[in-house]
Amino acid sequence: MADSIETRLRVAGVTLPEAAAPAANYVPYVVQGRLLQTSGQLPIDAGKLAVVGKLGAGVSLEDGQAAARLCAINILAQANAALGGDWRRVNRLLKLTVFVASDASFTEQHKVANGASDFLVEILGDKGRHSRSAVGVPALPLDATVEIEALFEID
């Protein structure tokens, strides 16, 4: 099927990693009724934090967007684990909450968040159109540049 999520991932050159295990006392996702909530995902690539630091203080907008894209890939890895690989269960990505480690003068968190939003719409199609908050914060765990959590409606 030309428009399947698996096909879109392949065309985008993305292989989903294994869903990351929690780094503290929490679960990586929760399924409650028809909702799937992921815990915040960091820009981890090949088991390592790929982008660290703050936007507006040494990290470029482009690097922030790349970090957000990696977070989105890790969100999909968690969703894949939660759904046992059955992407047909995804009805809609409802909301992203994007946290951007930012210098006080940086005000383009929304542009950083587009790195995730654009990728998720590319992969999920219309099911990926979502509401969103993009919030600047002074620091994130492990000095990550971006952390993103997601809420899905599922069957």
Automatic annotation (TrEMBL):
Residues 6-146 form the Endoribonuclease L-PSP/chorismate mutase-like domain. Pfam families: YjgF_endoribonc. It comes from the Bacteria. This is RidA family protein. It comes from Aurantimonas marianensis. The lineage of its organism: Bacteria, Pseudomonadati, Pseudomonadota, Alphaproteobacteria, Hyphomicrobiales.
